[in-house]
Amino acid sequence: MEPINARSMLDDAATAATIATVSADRSPIERRRRLSQAALAVTKQKVRRAYSQVVMAGIVRLADFVLLSLVGIALYVGYVVPLSGFHWEYIAAIFGMTATAVICFQAGDIYQVQVFRGQLGQTTRMISSWAFVFLLFIGASFFAKLGGEISRLWLSAFFFAGLGILTAERLFLRSMVRSWARQGRLDRRTIIVGSDQNGEQLVAALKAQDDSDIDVLGVFDDRNDNRALETCAGSPKLGKVDDIVEFARRTRIDLVLFALPISAETRILEMLKKLWVLPVDIRLSAHTNKLRFRPRSYSYLGKVPTLNVFEAPITDWDLVMKWLFDHLVGAVILLMALPVMALVALAIKLDSPGPVLFRQKRFGFNNERIDVLKFRSLYHHQADPLASKVVTRNDPRVTRIGRFIRKTSLDELPQLFNVVFKGNLSLVGPRPHAVQGKLQSRLFDEAVDGYFARHRVKPGITGWAQVNGWRGEIDNEEKIQKRVEFDLYYIENWTVMFDVYILLRTPLALMTKSENAY
Q: What pairs with residue 235 in β-bridges?
């Protein structure tokens, strides 16, 4: 037997202790919950960005109005004007007829994606609505005694040319919609909570509908007894309810649908506490409930009645408005800020060696990890791209110029490039926190319930919490709780004018409420 070397044992113990200390200090960049193989198979599928059906219908309405107006004006200028001169009454009549046509098309329910996919149904409705508009115009002209002043040839040409342009537009739209449908851009990717008999009936009812945009990915259930089925009408069980949050962050989810009866309110409330942080619609299926409300109380998925619980914030036209606001206003602010940014860059370069800019990992929309650009305010050899150590008052890592630009938030100006070019930031929104941001030894999501709900929208350069003084170092629980409260208020009450108000208040807030920024 070999003699025991006490010194060797002490060295090994010291080495092990050192490794353990380093491992404890080095927090993982991402904490991910393990998913089942069935769930992982779904997350690995290539998924394209969805198109809003509400926005699509609005664009088609606008296209109908513009095309019909152009056809009417072109025929008038080409035929009537050379014969009898220009009269504004014709232009007013053209705009009136095209506006009436769009209203009639709306009344005929032809501005629906399911209708766009077909051909015969929408063509029949379109022809009858277009003919009704002309009959209405002819009747109004007759009673106003204007029949002799209107060119019959122009009116006939407008009818047939307008019908031709509408038909051509619908054929083009039909091909585009079918292409988008094949790509999954029009599908509502749906998961079902509850894999019992109720869940199976719900999945079967959704799949039985023709031209449905509901794509059932699978079911989730916490129960392990014989009530939980492994497949519901062909859709596999993907995991437990606790897995849904992680699953929704790895693939696109548009709708969470509970198959549980209303009587299971305790279970539903427990699950909602976990799922409300997701930027998705959450509904309760009412297909098996014996208690029935008025039809207007429900929102329908085809013929399946559902009750809305949570709705995804800032969607459809609101999302378009916010995108335009970010890119147009952001581009103007970026152009105005370029001289200041050049001076800051020069000062940083002269103050200390190293690059002018640095990238830092932050939380983006739906917990996506994004790279945020900032002016370097720390010494290069002490850079902290994960922000694992909070900058404190008189922090020796901060350069002389760094203290000034952090106090005035000039270090945030490069994030305008994120807004205008990358699109992963907004001008206004919840501030993107570092992925390793901590309150003492706890990560932010461990310190505040519902913390990840602030990631239901895109983060912003400035926000409602910041203009109310909640910025800078987070060294106690109140500071992170207040930030989350103000961020959630912003998400629930967002409007474009609210963004404008916050943006206008930002310069004043930087000058008067910067005591925590260093």
A: 232
- Return d(Cα 45, Cα 48) in angstroms, integer: 10
Pseudo-torsion of CA 221, 225, 231, 233, nearest 10°? -90
- pLDDT tens by residue, 251-279: 999 999 998 877 777 888 889 888 999 99
In Å, how far from its chain's centre is CA 263? 32
| Spatial separation of the C-alpha atoms in residues 177 and 35, rounded to whole Å | 34
Domain segments of the chain: what residues?
Answer: 37-50+187-312, 53-182, 317-512
CATH superfamily of 37-50+187-312: NAD(P)-binding Rossmann-like Domain (3.40.50.720)
Phi–psi pair at 124, nearest 5 degrees: -60, -45
Q: What angle do CA 176, 177, 179 make, to 5 degrees?
A: 65
pLDDT digits (tens, 9 = 90+) for 171-219: 999 999 989 988 989 999 999 998 888 889 899 999 888 778 899 999 9
Any residues with CB less than 8 A from the CB of 467 and at least 6 apart, and which? 502, 505, 506, 509, 513
- The rounded distance, in Å, linking the Cα atoms of 390 and 232 is 48
Could you tell me the two tokens for 387?
A: 């922000």
| Type of residue at 10 | L
Cα dihedral: 26, 29, 35, 40 (round 10): -140
Contacts 24+ apart (CB under 8 A), 341-345: 341/413, 341/414, 344/375, 344/401, 344/405, 344/410, 344/413, 345/375
Please report, as a single letter, which amino acid is at residue 255. Answer: L
Rounded Cα distance between 313 and 456, Å, is 7
Q: Report the b/e string of 54-71 with b at 16+ CB within 10 A.
A: bebbeebeeebbebbbeb
Q: What is the pTM of this model?
A: 0.83
- Whether the CB-CB separation of 275 and 245 falls below 8 Å is answered with yes
Those residues with Cβ within 8 angstroms of residue 50's Cβ, 6 or more apart along the chain or in another chain: 184, 185, 186, 187, 188, 189, 252, 254
Provide the residue type at 432 as one letter. P
Who's near 30: CB < 8 A, 6+ residues apart? Answer: 369, 435
Number of residues assigned to the chain: 518
Task: For residues 180 and 209, give the distance between their C-alpha atoms in angstroms, rounded to a whole number.
Answer: 19
DSSP three-state, residue 217: strand
Instruction: Name the average pLDDT for the chain.
Output: 84
Which H helix or E strand runs over 155? Answer: helix 152-182
- C-beta of residue 180 within 8 angstroms of C-beta of residue 1: no
- Residue 258's CB is within 10 A of a number of other CB atoms, namely 26
